[in-house]
Amino acid sequence: MKEYLDLTKPVSLYIHVPFCTTKCGYCAFYSLPEAKCGKNDISSYMSVLTCQLEALTDELDFPFHTVYIGGGNPGLLGAENLSVILNLACRRGKSREVSMEINPETLDESFSLLLDRLTRISIGIQSFDPDCLKILGRNATVSQCERALRLLQDFRLGSGLVFNADLMMNIPGQTRSSLFSGIERLASYTPEHISLYSLTFEEGTQLVKTQCPLGEDEEADNLLRAWEKLESLGYEQYEVSAFARDGHYCMHNLVYWNLGQYIGLGPSAESSTGWTSVISSRENEELESYLRNPSFNSTRLSLDETIEEYLMTRLRTKWGIDKAEFSSRFARDFDQLFSSSVRRLDESWCRNSAERFVLTREGVLVLNKVLLTLFMSL
Q1: Strand 350-352 to strand 162-169: parallel, antiparallel, or no bridges (unpaired)?
Q2: What is the reported pTM?
Q3: How far is residue 112's CA from residue 157's CA, in Å, rounded to a whole number?
Q4: Residue 164 lies in a domain
Q5: Co-location of 48 and 175 in the same domain
């Protein structure tokens, strides 16, 4: 792996845990419900993953910039297995941020054993409306969501833990009043970070068989109102779906949005290595093939393809494109490349100065149109 990295730049680690109690109706990530798991699947997964981690950390003689354990529902591994993973992931030194996802119904006191290594926990609340939870196919009840949030508040005392909570909006049947009350209810638990996602209807998911999405205009209007609501509660929008209090940005996600370097382990996990020309890799998709032969399928992106990826990620953030940074990274001038395309954009969609090109909230709502216009200049 070392040969694919730019060793002058930070490297992060993502670990994918595919196990879930059941698969949510909207989920398009690779996950394996308990009903489809063999009795030895978790122990086999741990065996392969720990071997990978040992080999990787033997090869790299520096700590990871950030570590993120996602899923799936990593909590199903249990605190002891997660402790093994965290110890291996951090054996070369302390990372700036160590995060883990978990579902509300799984979180309990046993996970307090991890607080000496975890700096951040992300909990998937999604909604406080029982009807919305049912439509989404969530396992947790409203009372379990609230119990988990109270437990995270307890964990935070004395440990310095930061916690994030996910909410979903534009759920069929969800009223704006219900959405706003849910935002207020979540904010009352004072999470340092809230991720607010607009429900997407991904091909192949159960959701598309039973529900229909809202119209684009209604979705966009709801998003603007919800963003304003979070802002009024003290949460700064620093990425399309990410809101933080007092600068508690998710450092691991900033790696993605800056097109930084990260290595992904676990079935279907993705990696991005290199800097000027990125190598994109993906681990075997299915658990069975991962256990049998963990290996990556890799593609080196051309310079233009790397620039496209950079635009897709950076323009999601409040910082947009730093033109000096763009020139330093790609040895190409942003204005020379894109000035004609920028002139074709609606003025209300962006702010363009000598230093930066940044999208407004109106521009974020039409991000795909903006990107297609810019790509025409490559």
Answers
A1: unpaired
A2: 0.96
A3: 11
A4: yes
A5: yes
Q: Which two tokens mark 186?
A: 């979540």
pLDDT tens track, the chain, 378 positions? 788 999 999 999 999 999 999 989 898 888 999 888 988 999 999 999 999 999 999 999 899 999 999 999 999 999 999 999 999 999 999 999 999 999 999 999 999 999 999 999 999 999 999 999 999 999 999 999 999 999 999 999 989 999 999 999 999 999 999 999 999 999 999 999 999 999 998 877 888 888 888 889 999 999 999 999 999 999 999 999 999 999 999 999 999 999 999 999 999 999 999 999 999 999 988 999 999 999 889 999 999 999 999 999 999 999 999 999 999 999 999 999 999 999 999 999 999 999 999 999 999 999 999 999 999 999
Can you spell out the DSSP letters for 98-145?
EEEEE-TTT--GGGGGGTTT-SEEEEEEE-S-HHHHHHHT-S--HHHH
Cβ atoms of 160 and 97 within 8 Å: the answer is no
Q: Could you tell me the CATH number of the domain that includes residue 44?
A: 3.80.30.20
Question: What is the DSSP secondary-structure string of 12-49?
Answer: EEEEEE-EESS--TT--S--EEGGG--TTHHHHHHHHH
Q: Which range of residues forms the domain containing residue 351?
A: 302-378
Query: Helices (H) and strands (E) in the chain — how many of each?
Result: 14, 17
